[in-house]
Amino acid sequence: MLISNSNNEIRELDIENETSVILNIDITNLDGIIYGMATSNEYLASNCNFQLVNASCTLSIEEFNWLNYNIIYPNPTKDIIYLKTNINKIEIFDFFGRKIIEFNSPNGQIDLSELKDSIYLLRLYTDFGIKTEKLVKE
Questions:
Q1: Which of 30, 66, 76, 106 could form a disulfide with 85 if both were Cys (CB 3.0 to 4.6 A apart)?
Q2: Whole-angstrom Cα distance, residue 138 to residue 116?
Q3: Which residue has the higher pLDDT, 38 or 73?
Q4: Which stretches of 1-127 are DSSP H helices?
Q5: What's this model's pTM, rounded to 2 decimal places?
Q6: 3-state helix, strand, coil in the chain (%, to 5)
Q7: Three-state DSSP state, 37
Q8: For residue range 1-33, what is the model confidence (pLDDT) as tens digits?
Q9: Are 21 and 11 in contact (CB under 8 A)?
Q10: Which domains can be identified in the chain, with CATH numbers?
Q11: Which long-range contacts link 89-98 to residues 24+ away (Cβ below 8 Å)?
């Protein structure tokens, strides 16, 4: 990866080894045009116009967590709900907080056709933790 700093130096960053090397390129008179610059793995075609910009940023990847998203669909449902991730156990509670039914290790879908039309709370046990979702059965 190539970067420039406030001293008008071009540095090649080696992220894997956490090192950087100053390249002997004078960028003060290029008017924002870079000619034929390349990294060891890529070639940047000559005579490409690029504006050199000083920017501060952080590269990161947030860990994906299903608990931040709806795990079941469709909602509302008529009969069958589908699961977007691996669920270890589901407990279904009625509007008054009574446990109606429990499913251990459901395989991607659950048939709820025997439940009355109502609002239910589902307690979902996943590898990420426990989540409660509201479900409307029509």
A1: 66
A2: 8
A3: 73
A4: none
A5: 0.53
A6: 0, 40, 55
A7: coil
A8: 555 555 666 667 666 666 767 666 665 555 554
A9: yes
A10: 2-49 (no CATH), 68-137 (2.60.40)
A11: 89/124, 89/125, 90/122, 90/123, 90/124, 90/125, 91/122, 91/123, 91/125, 92/120, 92/121, 92/122, 92/123, 92/135, 93/120, 93/121, 93/122, 93/123, 94/118, 94/120, 95/119, 95/120, 97/121
Buried b (16+ CB within 10 A) or exposed e, 101-123: eebeebeeebebeebeeeebbbe
6: left (phi over 0), alpha (psi -120 to 50) or beta: alpha
Q: Are 27 and 4 spatial neighbours (Cβ–Cβ below 8 Å)?
A: yes
Angle at 115 between CA 72 and CA 102, to 5 degrees: 65
Q: What is the sign of the dihedral through the CA atoms of 125, 126, 127 and 128?
A: negative
Q: Is 68 helix (H, G, I), strand (E, B) or coil?
A: helix
Which amino acid is residue 1, in one-letter code?
M
Contact in structure between 78 and 55 (CB atoms under 8 Å): no
Q: Are the C-beta atoms of residues 121 and 134 closer than 8 Å to each other?
A: yes
Q: Are strands 2-4 and 10-14 parallel, antiparallel or unpaired?
A: antiparallel
The helix (run of H) or strand (run of E) holding residue 110 is strand 109-111
**Structure token pair of residue 72:** 């079941």
